[in-house]
Amino acid sequence: MQDMALLVQASGETDRLCPVDQVNMAKEIAHMIVVDRCPTCSGVWLDGGELERLKGDVNEQAILAMSRGFGFP
Ligand SMILES: [Zn+2]
């Protein structure tokens, strides 16, 4: 599946609020999965099953690349 198709599919999902600062998270494509990223604190939300897809399909290097910029408060 192409990234663009993933994004279209994801646009049907409801926006999530960041659990840290309650702002709308922006949808982003990272290594063929859709993640919700908070523009304020750069936290990333993975939908159920997405972590499993990461574990199964993506190598460790890609996970490291995706999580770069993830900030803990
Ligand atoms: Zn946040």
Describe this structure in words.
The protein has 73 residues and is of the alpha+beta class. The chain has one domain. Helix content is 33%, strand content 18%. The chain contains 3 helices and 3 strands; from the N terminus they run αβββαα. Strands 1-2-3 form a 3-stranded antiparallel sheet. Strand 2 and strand 3 form a beta hairpin. The model has no long low-confidence stretch (mean pLDDT 78). The structure holds zinc ion (ZN). The site of zinc ion has 7 residues, from loops. Zinc ion binds next to loops.
Main traits of this protein?
about 70 residues; alpha+beta; three-stranded antiparallel sheet; 3 helices; about 35% helix; about 20% strand; binds zinc ion
Strand content range: 15-25%
What is the topology, as strand order, of the major beta sheet? 1-2-3
Most strands sheet: 3 strands, antiparallel
- Secondary structural class: alpha+beta
Which small-molecule species are bound to the chains here? zinc ion
Low-confidence stretches: none
Rounded to an integer in angstroms, the radius of gyration calculated over CA atoms is: 12 Å
Number of helices: 3
Instruction: Give the number of domains.
Output: 1
